[in-house]
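Our consortium's second objective concerns turning raw sequence data into structural hypotheses that experimental partners can test. To show how far this objective has progressed, the report includes one record in full. It was chosen at random from the queue rather than selected for favorable results. The single chain below, 488 residues long, was entered without modification.
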Amino acid sequence: MGLSKTFSESDVSIHSTFASRYVRDSAAKHQMPENSTPKEVAYQMINDELMLDGKPRLNLASFVTTWMEPECDKLIMESMNKNYVDMDEYPVTTELQNRCVNMIAHLFNAPLEDSEAAVGVGTVGSSEAIMLAGLAFKRKWQNKRKAEGKPYDKPNIVTGANVQVCWEKFARYFEVELKEVKVREGYYVMDPVKAVEMVDENTICVAAILGSTYNGEFEDVKLLNDLLLQKNNETGWDTAIHVDAASGGFIAPFLYPELEWDFRLPLVKSINVSGHKYGLVYAGIGWIVWRGKDDLPEDLIFHIDYLGADQPTFTLNFSKGSSQIIAQYYQLIRLGFEGYRNIMENCHKNAMVLKDGLDKTGRFDILSKDVGVPVVAFSLKDRSRHDEFEVSELLRRFGWIVPAYTMPADAKHVSLLRVVIREDFSRTLAERLVIDITKVLQELDRLPAKNGGEVKNGKKSEDEIKRDIATHWKKIVMAKKTRIISCS
């Protein structure tokens, strides 16, 4: 006689995930579930949704690193449970951070002796680093004004209109007036002459960008330094420079070593750089270094005494993981100067391959510069029928994420596409992208003009794009059916 047993739906031990009741239920969206979910099911449910994300390596919108060596991945996983702020418990991790700061400071030509410790700190990204740099400039300016018996309630900072949004955040959060130098068509970075004209006695610093978010271009920090030196001599002020090298800080030392933008210039007092961009570490690490101790006001620093040594700390964040700091140290010693130079040269050469391929189509104007971050920014020569936003949308069908956007104020009529060339973007991918862009252009040529006429600035609506694509493919299908009928 055979034995049988009925299992309840709650007993998932004998079922595959897709045979369980959990597949029939919607994932929790607003409230925590009453009951637990088996670990295999929880994993599968989340993994299934994540499949709909884009592929990070094909996300050409981002400057952030999307590939690291397996050995570094292993170090990251092994240190995921270390809280960096626990310096007593993890003194070696703190030591690794200090080594990174020293190496980066020397890379930026800080005036240090061989064994002298640099002044700087690891952050969760360049946004936090910029906040810290701005606070240091503001506090130093306030202290000087107080000592002189002058008002100190209206600080301002001068930047280009092309700065990243974190500068706007700093100005708003810490009550500093943001004075922006407008860009213009054909000149999409801060004009040093106009920047210096905007400087007054309340200016805490001028922020220069080494690698514009919009087109990767380096601003002329040397000219800015020279003009500002002259103005300081004439006025008796001591306005200094901060360099936002989030993207370009790990590019310039290796590709353009003769370019003067860093601590070789006397007015450059602090520099930030993103370790998670061309520092070649996954998202979550930035760095800020100061020229010397005098450039970071002591009253902003907290001191921790551990293992008989004084550990100064100056951060906005408290708890944070140690893994990205460890990963940065791995990259610095694993690659060395030679390795970083080779990678940056590859990025630059692949950017030129993409640029040349786009040039050969005869359809684009190149808005990026050959000297700068390996970025290719380009716009359509003829926008009478279709625009860059349509190109961006149609490229997603091939898996590519290529952003389309407009330039800052006073050049907003200029729209463009931008491709960031990262370490893991090979020549083969560059050539493939040109092929796919060409296919998109050919498809757009067969589509009716946007809005039935000349393209206006602004992004095309999702419904309009879907309607145009549907019409396009309907025509192709009907044409094929006609050929089949005629052949039969």
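The partners drew two points from this record. Residues 59 and 97 are 29 Å apart (CA to CA). The first helix runs from residue 39 to 50. Both points have been shared with the crystallography group to help prioritize constructs.
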